[in-house]
Design brief:
alpha+beta; Neuraminidase; Transcription Regulator spoIIAA; 10 helices; about 30% strand; Tricorn_protease; serine-type peptidase activity; Tricorn_C1
Length: about 750
Amino acid sequence: GEVFSVPAKEGVTLNLTATPGAREKDAVWSPDGEKIACISDRDGEYQLYVQDADRVTKPKQLTHFKTGYRHTLRWSPDSKRIAFTDQTLTLYYVDVNGGQPVRVDKADFENVDVSVDLKPIYDFAWSPDSRYLAYSKMDSTLVNKLYVYSLDEKRVRCVSEGLFNDFHPVFTKDGQHLLFISNRRFDPTYGDFEWEMVYKKMAGIYALTLRKDGAPLLPPRNDREVESKEAKKSQKQKVRVSIDFDGLTSRIESLPVKRGNYRYLAVSDDHLFYLNRDEGDFNRFEFRSHLPMDLYAFSFKDRQEELVLKGIDEYKLSADGSHIAYRKGKKIGIIKSSVRDAKKKYLDLSHLQMWMVPKAEWRQIFNEAWRIERDFYYEPNMHGIDWNAVREKYGQLVEKATCRQDLRFIIGEMIGELNTSHTYVFGGDFKRKAERVNVGLLAADYSVDKTSNRYRFAKIYSVPDWLKPNVPPLFGPGKNVQPGDYLLRVNGKEVTADRNIYSYFLGLANRKVLLTVNRKPSLKGAREIVVTPVSNEYQYRYLDWVEHNRRVVEKASHGLIGYLHLPDTYNRSARIFPKYYYSQTKKKGIIVDGRFNGGGLDPDIFLQRLNKKPLSYWTRRYSHDYMTPWLGNNAHLVCLTNRQAGSGGDELPYLFRKKKMGLVIGTRSWGGLVGISMFYPLIDGGGITAPDYRIYDEHGRWVVENEGVTPDIVIDNKPDEMARGYDAQLMKAVEVLMEQIKKDPRPWPKHQPFPVDEIKE
């Protein structure tokens, strides 16, 4: 948590803070290079501090908040003010010479699942004369719009049309234009299964001319035009920004860059810098990380884009525009901003040293965890709990902690007082960690033939995972290993049952291995095969379970009922859904198995597809008629759930019932729908969550949390029945659907006779 000043090449490295019991973060240089500002909790709450950059001095405290979390510091170009945002989504600025923070604006809407330092208002930018702040925020239309705040007038104005999502604004150095990114380049991508469209690479870069009499950022080219002496002189004069807000949205132009995924603009006198990446998920929900990205420079003069640096996570342009600091993972580098297609060279940070006082650090971690719940928990009254008393109660135990694992346990017990789902604490500074033993796995179960003291293959898991694509080690042509076969040798070494079977595969994961197998416990007539054991066989066992269930349902229903399993409400289900749904849309019934569903995001993305019912039918001359939607279904549906289904796994049966899609069968679900939009990092690499949103229904009633979803038909699986392969919940689903199909078979409609047109004379 310390702040260091590190030279780019040669010079003195300084630890400017040296506070082992506090956390400093978000350190930034002042544009004049004389000061460094940071956020620190040295007084027990996060406050802004500023101190000299070239020597260790006592920092000056700029704020005195009683509570709250603050992030994203940005100096004004004149080095007199610092803007920042807090956990209430409010933007402030404070004068470094003293005074109370000034409230600029507050966002009243935000996207779900956005990390803590990207919550609004986070993309604010100062004008070059330090008199305006530009930023984006979402309003009640759920569209992200640009706003400009005037420090002189203390007034906010919206400068967006309101039709598109605009963000990441930045003023040009001459104060004549406001550049920004906007998602308005719509070129749909159509699904290969269904008539559905999604939009990717929507972003372009745009410029607003701030004055009515101002010139465009990129005026029409004219080879005869010569820049006047007055224009050159005005560029050297001190900038004073003037904005004519009337008609501003009509003074817009598009920069000549292809549609992309642009992020984080920065400007020098003659170039615009930005990050871009051709592929990735660039929504504001952070479903999947899109890092790293490539850094580009756009020349205002040549109107051409050039690659600066490939594959970085973050960059900052120096105040004078001459250098760029960049980060890739935990590595930091610096290059001149004029360099193109640079090779990454990182600063040597190995000599950075700080004193660590474990007890002091543990107190800081404990107090910060307590504050994070206080500041971000969805209910400000903390469910009626005296949260100060909770800190006092568990804080005493911190003094008795002997290791970081103790601290994690104490924090876990503390946040458990909230009696709320999704309260997690994890990680930490673990110094001793044993290396994992590499063990090869064949995706098989074994039995022991006591007579011969040999291992036999009891079951072989043989369902491929075509996504990777990966196939089980014993699957495929040339293997021909069957249940009951004996495993006699591994790489020529005799295999006997007096040793653990896995001991023969130490160090053999993901390597070619020679197996000797036979139908009898003898080397006579044995054959040799080459396989590649895997390090993890979970996916093969899971796919075998799913395929087994599908076949059981297929057999029990005489082919009338389909089956699919949703393991979560995120990527795993998204990957398995096409395999099992699109091949079964013409079944009379479908079992949607949501048992053991680990959650993730909103499950409606799956239910929308499952709930597509026929809207119309179309006749064909030479082939079977079809319906709209093409891959909808007219099947009776049921949903299975159990106590091991939670979070999104709770919402799945809840929404299934809400949409009146069918009956829910099984046992009551977990009951956890106070969600988390972020994982908050702690000082030593650990983390904590603060549940910050809760579900309620259209009548305003709290639902699901701590009660789960009770099925329409409650039935549990008995261990003895499961042991012999009987799944009572699954078979009840088959029984229910067969009854519904019998009562309501939903046959394909028969159209009227084809019309015959009569010709009247």
